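Page 37, continued from 36.
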């Protein structure tokens, strides 16, 4: 953040590109595309607006190249499962991004309280028009309130290869009752991570519902999943508290 702000103060426009300098597959961390990278940067600098330019006029109800009845969505109030289902498949075999990654970027920034506009890169003055708030492309509205800085940091630092899988009861407790994640509601673990790492919480259908700071590593969670909090000590021989992820260290997505 300080580096980017310093460059802007000097009149320099930073250009960031997803490549081997900022992402390495071999070490298990890759942003995957410039869409997600732009969302992480927007989150990092607490931007007011993220503009993503593409080769379509925005998000459609269907692929406009295949469906003549496809309609442009001028506004998306919330990135939910229905919106994610509109991503379809990318027609460009050389592209690493596509509509799915743009929707993923929108989900990240809007959760953080940042507006995103997706529009055609060849439209005249597209960036200027988006910055002015003109009607162009598809606007993804931000959450009602901006997340506090610590929770924005968690969203930006979460590992995309690690997750805790929960049952329906735990998912409902997290989303509706602002509860901590307890081991009793955990059904599985994906990836390897240590205590203190930031991981996703995944519900049925591989649906990401939250992320948070793990109070136990993946090896420990595999041993205590489905166990009552009071039995953690007997199962592991030690404990770091009753919660696998405390509600104060958790962000709903």
């Amino acid at each position: 953040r300080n580096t980017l702000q310093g460059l802007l103060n000097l009149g320099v426009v930073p250009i960031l590109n997803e490549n081997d300098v900022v992402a390495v597959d071999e070490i298990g961390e890759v942003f995957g595309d410039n869409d997600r990278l732009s969302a992480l940067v927007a989150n990092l600098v607490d931007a007011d607006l993220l503009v993503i330019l593409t080769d379509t006029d925005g998000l459609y109800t269907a692929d406009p190249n295949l469906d003549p009845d496809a309609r442009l969505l001028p506004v998306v109030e919330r990135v939910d499962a229905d919106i994610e289902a509109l991503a379809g498949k990318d027609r460009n075999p050389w592209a690493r991004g596509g509509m799915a990654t743009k929707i993923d970027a929108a989900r990240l920034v809007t959760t953080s309280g940042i507006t995103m506009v997706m529009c055609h890169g060849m439209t005249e003055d597209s960036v200027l028009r988006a910055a002015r708030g003109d009607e162009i492309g598809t606007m993804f509205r931000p959450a009602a309130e901006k997340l506090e800085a610590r929770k924005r940091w968690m969203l930006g630092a979460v590992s995309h290869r690690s997750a805790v899988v929960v049952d329906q009861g735990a998912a409902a407790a997290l989303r509706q009752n602002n509860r901590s994640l307890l081991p009793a509601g955990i059904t599985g673990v994906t990836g390897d991570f240590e205590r203190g790492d930031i991981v996703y919480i995944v519900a049925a259908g591989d649906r990401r519902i939250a992320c948070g700071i793990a109070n136990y590593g993946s090896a420990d969670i595999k041993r205590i999943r489905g166990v009552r909090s009071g039995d953690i000590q007997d199962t592991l021989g030690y404990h770091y508290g009753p919660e696998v992820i405390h509600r104060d260290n958790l962000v709903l997505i």
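The chain has nine helices and nine strands. Flag for discussion at group meeting. Residues 159-252 form a domain with the Archaeosine Trna-guanine Transglycosylase; Chain: A, domain 4 fold (CATH 2.30.130.10).
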